Amino acid sequence: MISVQNLHKTFALTKQQRKELNTEAKTATAVSDLSFSCQPGRIYSLLGPNGAGKTTTLRMLATLITPTSGQIFINGINALEQPQEARKHIGFLTGSTGLYARLTPLEIIDYFADLYQVSPKDREERKAYLFDLLNMNDFLHKRIGKLSTGMKQKVSICRTMIHDPSVVIFDEPTSGLDVITAENIIKLIRSCKDQGKTVIFSSHIMSEVDLLCDDLAIIHKGQLKFNDTMSAFRANMVTNNLTEEFIRIVQMPTQLA
Amino acid sequence: MIFRIFRKELLDTLRDRRTLMTMLVIPILVFPITLNVFMEISNSFQESASAETMKIGIVGDQSQRYTQQLENIPAALGPKKIIVFKDSASLITAIEADQIQLGLLIPANAQELGAQQQTITLNWLLDASEVGRAERAELYSSSLKANAEAERLQKLGLRPEQIRPLVVSTVNCASDKKMVGQLAGGFLPYIFIAFGFIGCMYPAIDLFTGEKERGTIETLLTVPVLRWKILIGKMMVVVCSGMLAASCALMGLFISIEFLDLADNKELLEVIHSILTPYFILSMFALLLPLVIFFAGLMIPIAIYAKSFKEAQSIITPLNIVVVLPSMVGFFPGVALDLNTVFIPVINVVLATKELIAGTLSLSYFLSVFGIMCSLAFLAIAISYKQFGKEANILS
User: Fold this and answer.
1) Closest residue in B to A93 (Cα–Cα)
2) Contact call for residues B137 and B54 (beta carbons, < 8 A)
3) pLDDT in tens, B215-273
């Protein structure tokens, strides 16, 4: 389970950034007063246009960056006070996640299994299960640099799941992928839900969200514009389709949303 | 966990052809190849210079005395052909046009000066930019001088020792080892420092900037491993690469001396063998290890800060000059390890290594240099850790 309370993140702006943004302000707010919770066995979607603060939010959940203020709990563990402990429960996958081109899939999976301190028995079982599930056995010993995008994505999925995390964070996981490769991700997200894991994923594509999510948050300029179940979103729609409704909510002044 | 990260990063680094080139191939081959080529070229120049027929133009030798003496010099000392010129102007023109290689000007009153037992001044005209000309002139001069002296002593009825009442000579009490240490000792640390720096460079950029560029840093930083452990694991690979590159360069130099006969002086070889003891090698590594850690600590914050491989390379490459130039201080005579130089990083290691080779490094100076470099290495690690912890640096 993920619980987020009053999350706030500001970044210091360099002189160059101030010039580019044409502002005198010394800081920029990426996320402001965000509170939500994600339940096990449900898929929580963070929807928002580019630059809304989705990636910053997910990076804070993954303990990559520290919030300026607020609280994050991962399975009841305070992620700000015990980030090492929280990380053991998290699997983090992004669409732009790179892999070590000079290593083989097997070497990468073993490396991450070691970093997550997975026991030898669990490791072998999970490797066998994931390699079969993702049909990876044919290219386990080839260097990553020689693999296709689809094969690389399978390695990334396997790397994310090798420690059997109970909380899985996906940051625009299908971004830049073709439909066949993206399908692997969709299957993975559904499979995580079926296994009772807590799943949060970000996207700017309404159709993808509609396909997968149980709970929805719409975020714009770092602020939460909507936070409820997907069925509630559908029930309260005032426009003809989901995309139009999403745009309407995003463009609505904060106090009315 | 640090060792696991180290193992993975080392494997990744050893599979990078660019790093392998700078870490192993170039350091091992650079000395055998460059020294061999240099020696070949130098020998071929010397051979061609000594085999060249020198046309010697002579002006003013009315008695044919010097022409005759030059003719009598054995051809084994270099072939020659003597041509008589009427005046110095035409001789200079011929030298400038390289029709004549050496010109000898004999004063018009040479015979008169000889008769009066005065000093006769002969002048060689030559193009000093051409290899072997000055050496050949010097060779002929010695012969002419010896003849003149013997002739004059005979006329005076004297033996050479009668006009040479005192001979003063110098006896060098320094051991050969000390001499090699002082004269060539600056070279060894220079090689080690230059290659140690270059060896660190590519792995530092690849393991930090490269990780950002490839987008693997996000994944790595979400694992339950403390960041300082990740930093140390990576840093160990950078340091190993630097040490390996420097060791390979020394090995290449050793191969050149030992197997390619580039140092054909037996005494010098014996001195080199007596220097290369396990104690010396261990002491040298003890001095150089903290220096290479210091180098890694200088490069890593830059590599963490840089957003691209090119940016990192463009900052670190000029740093190479700043760091490696001071190591040339070892080539200067008179600069010694003292209470001032012991505190200057790089220079202190160069001077300590120089004294180590000469066998004159005291334990207190050894420990001081080691301690100072360890402190600086620790400081460099702390700066690297601070940079590695900055969100703006690790995420693009």
Assistant:
1) B219
2) no
3) 888 888 899 999 999 999 999 999 999 999 988 888 887 787 777 666 566 776 777 77
- Alpha-carbon distance of B114 to B80, in angstroms, equals 26
The CATH number of the domain where B109 resides is what?
3.40.190.10
Q: Is A62 on the interface with B (CB under 8 A)?
A: yes
Q: Say whether residue A92 is in contact with chain B using an 8 A CB cutoff.
A: yes
Residue B43 included in any domain: no
A with B: how many residue pairs have Cβ under 8 Å apart?
Answer: 70
Contacts of B4 in chain A (CB under 8 A): 111, 114-115
Report pLDDT digits (tens) over A113-138: 999 999 999 999 999 988 988 888 99
Low-confidence residues of chain B: pLDDT under 50: none
Q: Structural domain boundaries of chain A?
A: 2-89+165-256
User: A257 pLDDT exceeds 70?
Assistant: no
Listed in sequence order, the residues at least 6 apart from A252 whose beta carbon sits closer than 8 Å to its beta carbon are: A225
Domain-terminating residue out of B112, B140, B162: B162
Query: CATH says A2-89+165-256 is which class?
Result: alpha beta
Task: Give A159's contacts in chain B (Cβ within 8 Å).
Answer: 219
User: Three-state DSSP class for A5?
Assistant: strand
ipTM of the complex: 0.88
- The parent domain of residue B198 ranges over 2-33+176-394
Chain B residues touching residue A63 (CB < 8 angstroms) = 222
Query: Touching check for A97 and chain B: CB below 8 Å?
Result: yes
Q: Are residues B27 and B61 in the same domain?
A: no
Residues B272 and B379 placed together within one structural domain of the fold: yes
